[in-house]
Amino acid sequence: MSKPALGFIGLGNMGGPMSARLVKAGHEVFVYDRDEAALTRAVAAGCKRLNSIKAVADQVDTVILSLPT
């Protein structure tokens, strides 16, 4: 059974490492963040960059949010 593709919004102090771990665990992870540097790090870790929150939501069934409160 293949692991589900996941979406991740917010790649800061928690979201960046969590999305990278999900890739290492075998998930396909689609990401979005407003911060270009955070996106670059996520792509280097194996995540797939998309250009909007809507694009992430359209690509996967499950979206994880990691946003500041």
Layout: helices, strands, pairs:
Elements: E1 6-9, H1 15-24, E2 29-32, H2 36-44, E3 48-49, H3 53-59, E4 62-65
Parallel strand pairs: 1-2, 1-4, 2-3
Describe this protein with a few key phrases.
Rossmann fold; 3 helices; about 20% strand; alpha/beta; 4 strands
Question: Number of helical segments?
Answer: 3
Low-confidence stretches: none
Provide the gyration radius in Å.
Answer: 11 Å
**Structural class of the secondary elements?**
alpha/beta
N→C terminal distance: 36 Å
What is the compact description of this entry?
The protein is an alpha/beta fold and 69 residues long. It is built from three helices and four strands.
Characterization of this structure:
It is a single chain. The chain has 3 helices and 4 strands, in the order βαβαβαβ. By secondary structure, it is of the alpha/beta class. It has a single domain (6-65), classed as Rossmann fold (3-Layer(aba) Sandwich). Strands 3-2-1-4 form a 4-stranded parallel sheet, with helices on both faces. The radius of gyration is 11 Å and the shape is globular. It starts with 5 loop residues before the first strand and ends with a strand. The model has no long low-confidence stretch (mean pLDDT 96).
